[in-house]
Structure formats: structure tokens, C-alpha cells
Amino acid sequence: MASYDEWNKAIVEYFVSGLSSGATVYLSVDEETLMHIGSRFEQSETSDVDWVEDFIEAVRSECVIGNQVYLEEISDYQSDKIPRCVAFLAAMVLAAHQMVAEETKEIVIAQINYFTRLRQVLGLSPEKGGRPDGLLPAGIEEPLWKTWEWWLIRNGWLPSAERGEGVTYAYINYPLSQALLRKGDKETLERLFRERENLGALSRVWDRDIVGLWVRRQQFNSKYLTELIQESDFRRHEVITNALHDVYISIDWEQEMLETQSGVRSIVQRRLTAQLYREEEDFITGNINYYLYPQQPKHFSDGALEVIRNGRTHPLNKDRPGWFRPLWSENPAGGLSYEVKGHPQIKELILPERQFWILVRDPEDEMSGVFAGWKHPGLGETFLLLCRKDYAEQMELFRQEDLLRWHHDFSINDEWVEYRECMIVSPSWEGIIPQYQDLYNALKPTISATISLRGGLRVPNQGGWLEGYPPEMTIIAFDDNVELKLLDKSDPDTPDTAIMDQTVDTNKPMGLPVLDPGNYLLEVHNLGKPITQRVLQVLSWDSLDCKKPEQPFSIDAGVFTLQGAIIRVNEEV
User: Fold this and answer.
1) pLDDT (tens digit, 9 = 90+) per residue, 99-113?
2) What pTM was computed for the model?
3) Were 325 and a residue from 61, 319, 371, 564 both cysteine, which residue would form a disulfide, CB within 3.0 to 4.6 Å?
């Protein structure tokens, strides 16, 4: 049996490994997730281990004595500064996933059902109902969620669990908000994917965005699944798209859909997806190259992965969180697949079949001239659109309707063209009848505001700005003004402190107040509703981490080697 701390650490690593900075984290724990996490433990015989039961026993042994829940022991941190509460919070989310209330039930019934499920997970009598002893008064567990939130922000990620509205949902909304696709939803999606692929209506080499758009055009009998995939909240839309894509990339197309006696299957990623990485144009030759840019697998732990191409082995080396280094030049049309070695489940790397690519500047070095598919462009952010020339008529329509602008276009070859310095300039896309629905859906803005941080002294690879040299902030939005909150999230044991809480003009640069080293959360609201967030980290001078260069360039000079400011004697003179 794995210990509580072993489960706690494994769960944290599972949900944050391979995530890029600024990503939103959902603690979406169900039976399949626990099976996947448990399979990573080094056990002499893992085939017979019931990892769900193993996890439950670990939580009970640490948090339950008799008929009462005890939270004191999990309110601190492990030796590696990971909060010890995460495994217990995962058990709360597991109970949310196990809810079997009908979709038409009233809220009060759902609340009763939730605590019945939680009691079952914790091994407490379900007959008594309501909150277990030790979780009273209501909300006593909220500081644990706040600790998890603080730890995520401290490491550059956005939290997602939040208090609900009203008395009934105030605290149970924390675990309920983390439950995304249920077991039945995943099975429904996999059957749909397999059926459509068999009919030739779905490709095996689609990327996340195409899968998300395709699923949202389908009809489902489940009210829950229908409402979930149509979610408009900016904080959930991207994560739900990721969850849909996770089911898609977990399918082994060469095998029949796996059915188990227990109904619980371990869904794991079976293929890597690559984006395009565009180097700066050669100012002498004018050549432009697009390189294969692999994304790290979800929940990636250290391991040696290799890609096989034309009989040669190419190691996948880390570039930054969420990404491997670019590989070789490729045709933007994609639809390619390469064998992957070094992982028991991941078998291939695909460059998706695409008619267009939306590429943004390097968020860590906007002056480098490099573009890639790191993220979707925010409002007010210029980007590069690489597309087939078939889209020229529709692009011109977007410009005539004043929806999209660009500086100029550049023909790459007979089939592809770059539209440079593109920018979305209007939210009013509803009246357009697009010739190509895919490009229309990709460009139509799904957010109403973006927080832009520019200038200052940013610390490379540490995700923050140096103390005394903060960035300049601009709230880019279609509305003239919005509400801005700047919250101090530096101390998990103190209530949030609002350093700023005011109405500000949009699309105008503004300075930030003097900030001590710490972790801050910028929130933009419109009519009381949050519309975008961004983490801001201020680093002290003492926290600077000077790393050795990964490629120490040197010059041979006879008996000496010149390497930066270091001169080494190669041989005795």
C-alpha cells in the first residue's frame, strides 16, 4: 500500500507535470485517474493492485479516526513544500465524480447526495447523512482549498476551484467545480469517436482545437455533457477542450474499445501532438522554415523519449514547461505520424492535418522573431496566420467587415501564404456566413478581455519580474472600462488583500503600484463577472537562479579554449 504522502505527492505531480506557465489546473480526480497515478508507483506486482481502493485506504488512515474526520495533520506541508491536503481534496472530488443524482434533481438533493458519496469514500456511515463529524461547521475545509490555490499561484499556474453562490453550494462547489467528464461521458465520447472514424468522418490526426470544435457540433442525449461542452466561462472552456482531446488521444485505434468487468478503465495518452515552430526569416535568402514542435505529454514525468524518422533516432529534449525542443523542418499540411519509443503507452508523434496555423510570438522573448503555437492569441495581440491560399477570399471578407486586420501577406509557395501582424478588432462575428467554418471558429474571439504585461525586467525561466522593475499593464478589451482587482496571494494563511480594486480604462497602458516580492493575481471583471485572470510574480534579488548555459559555445585558440570570460589551459605550456 502506498502511503498518504506518496499518494499526495503523486497526485500533485500528475496534475502539474508538463503544464506551461499560466495554465489553469483542475483537480479532476476519478477512478480512471487514480488507476493511472497508481500504476506509476514502483511495486513488485502491480497487476493485482486495486489503486482506487489503495488511495481510499491511504486517505482514511491519515484523515479518519473512528467516525470523525481530522484535518489538522494535513494542514501543513511535506518536506518538498507540497501541501499535504491535496490527497484529501482529491478524495472530495472523487465523491463529486461518483454522484449519481439525476440531472433533474433539485440542488438540495444534490447536496445530500454529495455528502452521502463523501461518507462512502471516507468509510463513514452513509445513513446519518449530511456533513461528517470533523467537517463541521460548514466550510471548515475551505482553508485547505485556499492552500492549494496559493501553491498553484506561487508556481505560476491558475487555480480553478472556487466557492459557490448561496448557502447550499457555498462550499461543496469547491469539489463539484473540479469534476469535468464523468466515466459515462468518456465512454460516450470514445464510442462516438470510433464510430465516426470508422465512417471516415473523423481523422486520427486531428489536433486539440479541431477535436474541440468537432465535438461541440455534435448532439448528445446527456444534458450534463451538452451543457459541459457548451461552457462559455473562459476558465473552463479551455480545460474542457483539453479533456475532450485527452479522450481522443487515449484511443488505441488498432484495438477494440476496452470493456472491463468493473467498468473502470485507465485512460492514458497514447500519442504526442506537435505544433509548428517558425524561425525568424533569413534576411539574406528570405527562407522560412517550419519545424516540428512536440508538446510534452500530459502528466509528464522525467523519461527518455525518442522519435524514429527514416530509421534515425531523435531524442526529445525539454525546451520549456509543456514543450520539447523543435525537431526538423516539416510541410505545414501535416497529417504525419512518427514512432515514439521510451514510454510504455505513448507510441507515436503526430503533426495534425491542418489547413491553417495560428502562431504567436515567443511569450518569453517577444523580440526574438520566433513564432509557434504556444497558445491562442489574446485580444490586442498580433499573430501570424499561415493558411492555404484557398482561404484568401474569406480572409478578405473578414477584413472588409472590419473583424480582422493584418499588415501584409507573404506567399510561401504555390499553396501556402502568411498573413503577418494579424489582429482581431471586433467581437461582432455573429452576422457572418463563413465559407470555411473551421477558420471562422478559430478566429472568432472566445474571451472579452486580455491582460497584457510588457516591459519591466523579466527573469528568464523563473516566470516573474524582478523587484523594483515591474511590467507595464494594459487591459485589452472591447468595452471602454472594466473592474480590475490586484490580489496579494503571497501568504496562504491570511485573507486575500486587494491592493487594487477599481474601475480602469481599457486599451491604455498603466503602471502598477510598488509591489514587494510575492505572488499576485490580476482579475478583470465586467458587471461583477470575472472575464480573465493572470498570475503576476515579483521576485527578490536573492531569488535569482543563475543557470549554466545549456550550450557553452567556445573557441579553440591553440593551447587555450576561450569560453565567454573563461580561459582554460588545454595542455601544459
Assistant:
1) 743 444 444 445 567
2) 0.80
3) 319
